[in-house]
């Protein structure tokens, strides 16, 4: 299935991004909340993602805990 892309801005909806990565929208929201919106700010309701964002989210989705990597604590 081909993903429809907004030609003007080269942006993707959350549903398109999740489909490209192969994850659910719920998982996408979890990753965004864990890595980006972790300072108490709210995730925008109509979030648009660029290709660079999707690459980073895909990395986060595939990454596993590594004892050699020190992760920053979540902001509270």
Order of helices and strands: EHHEH
Specify the number of helices: 3
Helicity level: 40-55%
Terminus-to-terminus distance: 40 Å
Shape: globular
- The count of strands amounts to 2
Largest sheet: 2 strands, antiparallel
Structural class: mainly alpha
Q: What portion of residues belong to β-strands?
A: 5-15%
Give the overall average pLDDT: 82
Radius of gyration: 14 Å
Residue stretches low in confidence (pLDDT < 50, at least 5 long) are: none
Strand order of the largest sheet: 1-2
Explain the overall architecture.
The chain has helices at residues 14-21, 25-35, 51-62; strands at 11-12, 49-50. It has 76 residues and is mainly alpha-helical. It has a domain at 11-62. Helix 1 (14-21) packs across helix 3. The longest helix has 12 residues, at 51-62. The radius of gyration is 14 Å and the shape is globular. It starts with 10 loop residues before the first strand and ends in a 14-residue tail after the last helix.
């Amino acid at each position: 299935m081909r993903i429809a892309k907004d030609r003007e801005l080269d942006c993707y909806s959350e549903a398109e991004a999740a489909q490209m990565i192969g994850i659910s929208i719920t998982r996408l929201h979890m990753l965004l909340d864990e890595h980006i919106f972790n300072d108490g700010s709210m995730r925008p309701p109509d979030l648009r993602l660029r290709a660079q964002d999707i690459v980073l989210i895909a990395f986060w989705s595939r990454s596993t805990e590594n004892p050699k990597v020190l992760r920053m604590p979540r902001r509270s």
